[in-house]
Amino acid sequence: MAGEALDVPAQEASPAHDRRRLLARWPLLLGFAILAVPTLVSLGRQVWTREAGAHGPIVFATGLWLLWRAEASFVALARPASALLSGFLFVPGLLLYVLGRAYDFISLETAGLYGVGLGMALSVFGVRALRQNWFPILYLAFLVPPPEWFLDNITAPLKQFVSHVTTESLSAVGLPISREGVTIFVAQYELLVEDACSGMNSLIGLTAISLLYIHLMRSSSVRYALLLTAFVVPIAVIGNILRVMLLVLLTFFFGDSVAQGFAHEMAGIFLFAVDLLLVFAVDALLIRIVPRSWRAA
């Protein structure tokens, strides 16, 4: 009898039993999917087709892969949180989702969906599982697009800085170039430094990809992740200065039609790849000079 009594808890604690218990929560997953699919369609149409949101599909695909990769950990640590704690995230998130959906405010809608997802995850897995697997959850937050007014306020001084450095640098080598605000004049051509050339678009995508790289390759601490991310900011700005310089040179030597056509898009892709290589190079350098104890997870 004693042996039989001991078999029951062992069976209940098995991974297969835990998975069956979690699968019984399928209505939550179905409800989240009903909310998520329209938002993903809106993101695809409104955000991911623009340069500012080009990193979105990558973050979405790799974020789902990270969750699948951590599935065993989520199941093993699952201890459902209280309804009060889950509702603390679920209810405000649902309100934000409804407001964003009703007023076609994609940033608010996506943020609300993210909050709903966190609330549901708490109700199924609990605080310990989410804390242990914090990276996929934080990483998926990059799917929330910043509001346009926020980007406008942030990019304004960056555009001025990029315009100033570009003009002064090319003027120093004899190019007939001047500027007025964020408008650059070279020969008979006039170029406007737009938001895409400020550095913010590259900064968001670079930060997301850099954090993914750190997580997969280094399994490092939050401190090291923040340290490397701090280098992402100047790398993104420098990359966009080089991009504007390249476009100015293409305009001057080959005309506006060449610079604003296929070459414009290729310049952005090429310099983003260069930015990533610079991030990898900085990481390789930091690994050599930062103490191992400070990089430990």
Principal-axis shape equals globular
The chain-level structural class is: mainly alpha
What percentage of amino acids are in beta strands? under 5%
The poorly predicted ranges are: 1-13
Reported for the largest beta sheet, the result is:
3 strands, antiparallel
Radius of gyration: 24 Å
User: Could you report the average pLDDT, rounded to the nearest whole number?
Assistant: 82
Sequence of secondary-structure elements: HHHHHHHHHEEEHHHHH
- What's the helix count? 14
Kindly state the number of beta strands: 3
State the distance separating the first and last CA atoms. 46 Å
Q: What does this protein look like?
A:
The chain is mainly alpha-helical. It folds into 2 domains: 2-143, no CATH class; 149-295, no CATH class. Helices cover 77% and strands 4% of the residues. It has 14 helices and 3 strands. It has helices at residues 2-12, 15-23, 26-46, 56-69, 71-77, 83-102, 106-132, 134-140, 148-172, 200-217, 222-254, 256-259, 262-289, 292-295, and strands at 177-180, 183-186, 189-192. Strands 1-2-3 form a 3-stranded antiparallel β-sheet. Helix 3 (26-46) packs across helix 7, helix 9 crosses helix 11 and helix 10 (200-217) crosses helix 11. The longest helix has 33 residues, at 222-254. It is globular, with a radius of gyration of 24 Å. The two termini are 46 Å apart. Mean pLDDT is 82; it is low at 1-13.
Write a brief structural summary.
The protein has 297 residues and is mainly α.
